[in-house]
Design brief:
- The structure holds three protein chains of three kinds.
- Chain A is an alpha/beta fold.
- Chain A is 40% helix and 17% strand.
- Chain A contains six helices and seven strands, in the order αβαβββαβαββαα.
- Residues 149-155 of chain A have low confidence and may be disordered.
- Helix content of chain B is 23%, strand content 28%.
- Chain B has three helices and six strands, in the order βαββββαβα.
- In chain B, the strands form two sheets. Chain B has a four-stranded mixed β-sheet.
- Mean pLDDT of chain B is 72; it is low at 118-127.
- The complex binds iron/sulfur cluster.
- Iron/sulfur cluster sits between chains A (23-24, 26-27, 61-62, 89-91, 96-97, 121-122) and C (62, 65, 147).
């Protein structure tokens, strides 16, 4: 019973945590713009919170560099599973325009597994919302496949 | 671009003088000239006029810091240490070459120099 | 009471960007603040060796997504100076229009985040709602919401038709009305005042000596604005730098609020005086020499140093961004403040970490 409720609410009201990992701010402000009245993802029950331990979805913008890859990994590890990761912008996908810079490691998938890629430089809010919806479809698949959800309930 | 010359010895004095005259520290630019030397350009500003001071220095000698005179200089001097490997003496806040770069991946090269110098050689105790 | 060191960041709910501060606190009062960086450092200046000078425009636009157009404008001005080309008058006016639109959107964004930092969420939503109109203008005139990419060496690559200009003026009337409706909230509201008045005071002398830039400097009573250098079309436009004298977080908020209204006025002036003609000139050859170029960004004075050697690739590109200059004042204003006020104070300098670290 409890399991059902958790599963249901995870899909109907996913909680996001946003980490800016060396983005130029372009994708960042577009992600924030999704929360504001014009796009307003809260009407779909999507909540942005600052605490990775409460979150189901991790949104990463920007390239991974040598210092923040540890922070990114930590945030990912702190999140209870099942969890999904959405990489936003050309930077998050592959390193984008900064790919050849000396301090850049590359896309987010070099460090943690990524479920949904949202392209664009910067990605438009519509695209980001679409990415989250895609991600939720994946999340419910993971739930159906019956991955351990113990942690999720505990949190 | 017009500029004045300055040397290591006169740097602090000149800094004090400019400060007394009401100049504001803007920034320092570091350039690589060739295998052994670098050039530092100090920019100061007063009432929208900007003036430049140039100095050529060898790569392997430490520099006097300007941060005791202009506190704002500490950030850019740390940046130059990261990127070009010049050590500044008497920094008010010393990040020890890890302002941007991470100490876990061993920092051996100086990313902005084409003719890379080993960090470890130039700075024996980068702490 | 013994001292405690409280780490702040890099991932922190109030800040959209990763910055880390080690705060030494004694009884909730900050004694020392040491910033740490590197979470966004990419090494953009070095890319000048791999991309030719035209391609670098796209790179410098991405130093910071918020004031991207102004970064590219400054870079192009530098190269135009080296290559001795003059941008046609219409191009110069168009640059002013886009750069002031960027300033409006950046200030509205900041006013929202700032309100959010002291827990005034409805104001945050209001400012961001107004801001969407500017994003629409950007998208309609340049094709992208944030990174408009209109600059090229020698001018701008997009033009505005008279009907677009009318529409922009119409939208700006709405923006102005909506922003002015929030004026009393930002200047008289009890909550706003309680959280910001007298917090993080930077005296005139301190601000000048520590090299503060932009609104942070002007809120301390120094009327310095790089637009006074009259680059582009600013020689024909009327404007006075906005100055406040208190030097606290409240004054910095007011400066930005008033600048938003001023920028709306500047766009209007520029559209009214927009001359006919070309928007760009073709450039030939390669740049050679050295130049220092300064422009005023929403966050303050930005300096580009360019050294070119007559080939496709630049020798050195150095970017000194406004937040880089505002970090030392921040480190100086935090001691003596309460821990709960730290997020508001950090935001009060309008930090752009992506600019700072490049
Ligand atoms: S994808 Fe483009 S807009 Fe997004 S962070 Fe990267 S450079 Fe900036």
């Amino acid at each position: 019973m409890l399991k059902k409720i958790v599963e249901h609410s995870q899909i109907k009201s996913p909680w996001l945590v946003h980490y800016d990992c060396g983005s130029c701010n372009g994708c960042d402000i577009e992600t924030l713009a999704c929360l504001t009245p014009l796009y307003d993802v809260e009407r779909f029950g999507v909540l942005n919170i600052g605490n990775p331990k409460h979150a189901d979805v991790l949104i990463v913008t920007g390239t991974v560099n040598k210092r923040n890859k540890k922070v990114l990994k930590q945030i990912y590890d702190q999140m209870p599973s099942p969890k999904i990761v959405i990489a936003i912008g050309a930077c998050g996908l592959s390193g984008g325009i900064f790919r050849e810079a000396y301090n850049v490691v590359g896309g987010v998938d070099k460090v943690i597994p990524v479920d949904v890629y949202v392209p664009g430089c910067p990605a438009k809010p519509e695209a980001i919302i679409d990415g989250v919806v895609e991600g939720l479809a994946k999340l419910s698949e993971i739930q159906k496949a019956g991955k351990p959800k113990k942690e999720a309930i505990a949190s | 671009m017009q500029s004045l010359e300055i040397t290591k010895e006169t740097l602090r004095q000149e800094g004090e003088r400019l400060k007394a005259e009401g100049f504001r520290f803007v920034t320092i630019t570091c350039l690589e000239l060739d295998e052994t030397s670098l050039e530092l350009i100090y920019h100061f500003d007063k009432d929208l006029e900007i003036i430049h001071y140039r100095m050529q220095i060898p790569k392997d000698a430490p520099m006097p810091s300007l941060s005791p005179v202009f506190f704002a200089a500490f950030l850019v001097e740390n940046e130059i240490y990261d990127q070009f490997g010049i050590k500044f003496d008497d920094l008010v806040l010393d990040f020890g070459g890890t302002l941007y770069l991470d100490d876990d991946d061993d920092i051996t090269a100086t990313p902005f120099c084409k003719f890379g110098v080993k960090r470890a050689d130039t700075v024996p105790d980068a702490e | 009471m013994s001292k405690t060191i409280v780490p702040f960041g890099p991932q922190h709910p109030v800040l959209p960007e990763p910055i880390h501060l080690s705060l030494t606190v004694e009884d909730e009062v900050v004694k020392e603040a040491v910033p740490a960086f590197g979470y966004v450092h990419r090494g953009l200046e070095k890319l000048a060796e791999k991309r030719d000078f035209h391609q670098m425009i796209q790179v410098v636009e991405r130093v910071c997504g918020i004031c991207s157009m102004i970064h590219a404008m400054c870079y192009c001005q530098g190269l135009e100076h080296l290559m001795k080309v003059e941008v046609p008058r219409r191009g110069q006016f168009l640059r002013v229009i886009w750069s002031e639109l960027h300033r409006i959107h950046s200030h509205l964004l900041w006013l929202g985040l700032y309100a959010d930092a002291f827990g005034f969420e409805s104001v945050f939503m209001q400012f961001w709602k107004i801001r969407e109109r500017i994003m629409d203008i950007n998208e309609a005139t340049a094709g992208n919401r944030v990174i408009v990419s209109v600059n090229q060496v020698g001018g701008v690559r997009r033009d505005l038709s008279p009907s677009k200009c009318d529409w922009i003026l119409d939208e700006l009337n709405h923006v102005e009305k909506e922003v002015k409706a929030l004026e009393s909230t930002m200047s008289n509201n009890y909550t706003v005042k309680k959280r910001t008045v007298g917090k993080g005071i930077l005296t005139r002398e301190m601000a000048y000596e520590l090299g503060a830039a932009g609104p942070t400097l002007r809120a301390s009573g120094i009327a310095q604005d790089m637009r006074q250098l009259q680059y582009e079309a600013f020689d024909e436009l009327d404007f006075e730098p906005v100055v406040e004298t208190d030097g606290d977080a409240f004054a910095r908020g007011l400066v930005r609020f008033k600048e938003t209204i001023q920028s709306i006025d500047l766009v209007r002036q520029a559209i009214a005086r927009l001359p006919q003609g070309d928007t760009f000139v073709k450039v030939k050859g390669k740049p050679e020499g050295e130049v220092v170029q300064r422009v005023e960004q929403p966050r303050g004075e930005c300096l580009y140093y360019i050294k070119a050697n007559g080939t496709k690739f630049l020798d050195r590109l150095r970017i000194r961004t406004p937040t880089f200059a505002n970090i030392p004042p921040l480190a100086a204003m935090l001691p003596g403040m309460e821990l709960a006020d730290v997020p508001v104070l950090i935001l009060s300098i309008d930090p752009c970490i992506s600019c700072t670290e490049r």
